[in-house]
Design brief:
This protein is mostly helical and 114 residues long. It has one domain. 71% of the residues lie in helices and 0% in strands. The protein contains six helices and no strands. It is globular.
Length: 114
């Protein structure tokens, strides 16, 4: 059983299509390049523009790119088991700065039908 599926009810796991199960595996078990590949490709033009932009705009573009990648990492961490997370991430989750797997699952449970 995949780590990300441990918090889901067995009936829901069975209902997931193979494509969705594969996607969840990629998000939760992929290496860093796999997880942040999309945001890095999207933010590459912003970083290139930051090299040529004046300082206020360059700072904005650099921070925008950084936080796009960090948002993807936070999403990945919300799918991870708590025991697999670095201590700093667990501390941020305990402080309710980052969402936990449990909170994400309970929030989604309210939107499910029947």
């Amino acid at each position: 059983m995949v780590r990300a599926f441990s918090t889901l009810p067995p009936a829901l796991i069975c209902a997931l299509t193979p494509e969705v199960r594969s996607f969840v595996r990629t998000i939760t078990q992929g290496e860093l390049p796999t997880v942040v590949e999309g945001p890095c490709v999207v933010t590459a033009p912003f970083l290139a523009a930051a090299l040529l932009a004046p300082p206020p705009l360059a700072h904005f573009l650099a921070f925008f790119s950084f936080w796009c990648v960090m948002a993807q990492m936070a999403h990945k961490w919300s799918h991870e088991r708590r025991s697999a997370l670095p201590a700093a991430v667990r501390a941020l989750q305990d402080a309710h700065i980052l969402i936990t797997s449990k909170a994400r699952t309970s929030a989604r449970a309210g939107r499910r039908c029947g």
